[in-house]
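Database export, one record per block. Field names are fixed; values are copied verbatim from the stored entry.
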Amino acid sequence: MKKFDAIVIGAGIIGAATSYYLAKKGLKVAIVDKEHPASGASGACNGGLSYFGKKGELLAIAHESLLMYKDLARDLNYPLEICQNEQLVQLAVTQDELLELEKSVEECVRFGLDAEMIDRKKLHQLIPGLSEKPIGAAVAQGGLHGFANPFTVVNGYLAKVQELGGILFQSWEVKNILSKGGKVEGVANGDQVLKAPIIVICAGVEAIDLLEKLKVNKDLQANRGVVLVTEIVPWNLQTKIMGANFGSDTENIISLCIEQSLHGNLLVGSSHEIGKVGRQISSEIIAQIAKNAVTFYPPLASISVIRAFTGVRPHREEGPFLGEIDSYPGMYAALGHGGMGITLAPWTGRTMAEIIC
């Protein structure tokens, strides 16, 4: 039996960030993961960083989190792969989509953030080779949009946690949450026990089963997405190209997202399947994603796809849940970020540490 100040369940980007900010406040932290760091949705996404398309408080939070990314490599003293100098272009193919993009632009402008609408002519000047399918687009830059390699971010957070006295337990599945006198006191994996008066659930989609055992309902749903990875191409695509329906809550759709990694591969996506919890990828989904992307950007037709990967994210219609679980004093959770987990991770981790401490 080992004793800690806090136990964080899940070593994805939300769990890693939460662990870091707790350790920074002086707590001795244990991080436990069923598999290994970033083995879930954090390691199976395009790592997108963006504030565009978010509204109200969520927009303000995304903006603050993206500003935190600016200093993250220095704070962690770790070589992170983060790019925030991309421009984001979101394409509309119908008048209804144009109207929705205009609302998002207006929201950004209200917050003093960079965003504007452009017509088809300017769009083709901005992205040569684009098809005639889009009728207009929204553009946002502002020095904050881009992507983060989630593996380097997770590893950077965890390296710092361990430097501050924390311990990472890999291949450690939480089978029981222990309580005494109405308060949590630890977790167990068979005969192995870790004790702490604070437990934080950041287990992504795995939290659905865990919360069900505890008879706690946070309205989480599994949301599966598939992304294609191409061969390295000699392009310098400093634009993230997205469809207007990217990030939509609509079930079972194919949406557009094209961006180039720092290594030269293109990440092309993606699917959006609510309730699909498996990681098995069908050839039909791969074909649909590829066909959709080529209809928007024909130059992709000559590029080879070298692999595809899938991530299953915890989706929550009302947005992420952050806070204490009332029926279990001492138990907290950060869940339901959906496709916003990478963008919101630094703010989420810091906020959870502030709530708990």
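Remark 1: The longest strand covers residues 221-232.
Remark 2: The mean pLDDT is 92.
End of record.
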